[in-house]
Design a protein that fits this description.
Order of helices and strands: HHHHHHHHHHHHHHHH
Number of helices: 16
Largest sheet: none
Number of strands: 0
Distance between the termini: 157 Å
Shape: flat
Structural class: mainly alpha
Radius of gyration: 47 Å
C-alpha cells in the first residue's frame, strides 16, 4: 500500500504546484489580455460603425451617440432616446413658430389661416411685411405733421407739394387693414409671383377704390373694374412699396438735417443744453459778493480773556520792580 501511495502523492504534489504556478504564467505571458484586447477592439469598431450610421441618419454627433451608448444597454435604447430628443426639440420649435406667427393676430383669424393650410412660417413672413409697411407709413405721416408745425409759414408754402404727397401716404394708411392685407397676400402671392407684388396690387386697389377680395372670388370681374377705374390715372402718383421705402429714407434724411433736431442732437452728444433750453431759461440776477460767515469757536473768547489776565499780571509786576 505504501508503494502505491507514493506515485499518487507525487502526482498530487505536481498538480498542486502546477495550479499555483498557472496564474503567474498566464499573467506574465499576456495570453488573456491579448485575446480580451482583440475582442474589445472588434466591439469598439462595430460600435463606432453603428454610431456613424446613426449620426448620418439623425444628424447627432458621433461622440454624443457613443456617449448615449455607454449609458445605455442596447442600440435600440439609444435610438429611442434620440427619437424622444428630436420629438421634444421639434415640439419646442413648433411652439415658438406658432407664437411668432400668432403674435398680433386674434385667435379666430389665426385659426382661419391655419385651417386654410397656411404654415406658420408663411404667416410670419407676410405679417412682418405688412407691419413694416404700416410702421413706415405711420412714421411718414407723423414726420409730415411735425414739420408742418415747426416750419415758418413761407417754408410751409414752399413745401406744398411735399405736404400733398404726405397726405396721400396718410390717406393710404387710413384705408389699410392688417388682417385684410395679411389674408390677401397669403392668398394671392402665388398669382402675382411674390408677397411684394401682391402687396403692390393691394395698395393699388386701395388707391383706385377697388376691393381686391373680388379677385379671390371672380378674377375677371376684378380686372374689369380695375381697368375702368384706372382710366386717366397718373401712374407716377401711384404709391408702391418702393415709393414708401424712398419716402421713408427721405423722411429720415430730413429729420437728421432739421436745424432744430440737429441742434438738440448736438447738444445731447456734447452735454450742452440745446436751443430750446436756452430759450426757456430765465435770466439770472447778479448777487452781491458776500464773505462767508464762519461760526466762532466758543473757546476763542475764553482764551482771549485768559491772555488779557496774564498780560495785566505781567505788566503790574514790571511796574512794581521799577518802583
Amino acid at each position: 500500500m505504501s508503494k502505491l501511495k507514493k506515485p499518487y502523492t507525487k502526482i498530487l504534489v505536481i498538480l498542486i504546484i502546477f495550479a499555483l504556478l498557472l496564474p503567474t504564467v498566464i499573467v506574465t505571458s499576456n495570453i488573456l489580455p491579448k485575446s480580451n484586447a482583440k475582442a474589445a477592439n472588434v466591439i469598439n469598431k462595430d460600435d463606432r460603425k453603428i454610431a456613424e450610421e446613426i449620426s448620418n441618419m439623425t444628424g447627432v454627433k458621433i461622440e454624443e451617440v457613443m456617449k448615449l451608448k455607454n449609458n445605455s444597454n442596447s442600440w435600440n435604447e439609444v435610438l429611442n432616446r434620440l427619437k424622444n430628443q428630436k420629438t421634444n426639440a421639434q415640439a419646442d420649435k413648433d411652439a415658438r413658430s406658432t407664437v411668432l406667427a400668432q403674435n398680433g393676430l386674434d385667435d379666430d383669424f389665426f385659426k382661419k389661416l391655419t385651417a386654410e393650410g397656411f404654415k406658420n412660417e408663411e404667416i410670419t413672413e407676410v405679417k412682418m411685411l405688412v407691419e413694416r409697411v404700416m410702421f413706415e407709413l405711420e412714421q411718414i405721416t407723423a414726420s409730415s405733421n411735425m414739420t408742418e408745425k415747426e416750419l415758418p409759414s413761407p417754408a410751409v408754402e414752399s413745401n406744398t407739394k411735399d405736404e400733398e404727397d404726405a397726405s396721400a401716404f396718410s390717406e393710404l394708411l387710413s384705408k389699410m387693414d392688417t388682417k385684410t392685407a395679411v389674408y390677401l397676400l397669403l392668398k394671392l402671392n402665388k398669382d402675382f409671383g411674390s408677397n411684394e407684388n401682391a402687396f403692390d396690387e393691394y395698395l393699388l386697389s386701395l388707391q383706385i377704390d377697388v376691393d381686391l377680395k373680388k379677385y379671390v372670388i371672380d378674377k375677371d370681374s376684378y380686372e374689369k373694374e380695375k381697368s375702368e377705374k384706372s382710366v386717366g390715372l397718373d401712374t407716377s402718383k401711384i404709391i408702391t412699396l418702393s415709393r414708401i421705402e424712398e419716402k421713408m429714407l427721405k423722411t429720415l434724411h430730413n429729420e437728421s438735417t432739421n436745424p432744430i433736431n440737429k441742434g438738440v442732437k448736438e447738444a445731447e452728444s456734447t452735454g450742452v443744453e440745446g436751443p430750446s433750453a436756452a430759450v426757456n431759461e430765465s435770466p439770472k440776477l447778479a448777487l452781491p459778493d458776500v464773505e462767508p460767515a464762519n461760526p466762532k469757536n466758543p473757546t476763542d473768547d475764553v482764551m482771549k480773556d485768559v491772555n488779557e489776565i496774564k498780560n495785566r499780571s505781567l505788566n503790574s509786576g514790571i511796574i512794581e520792580k521799577e518802583k
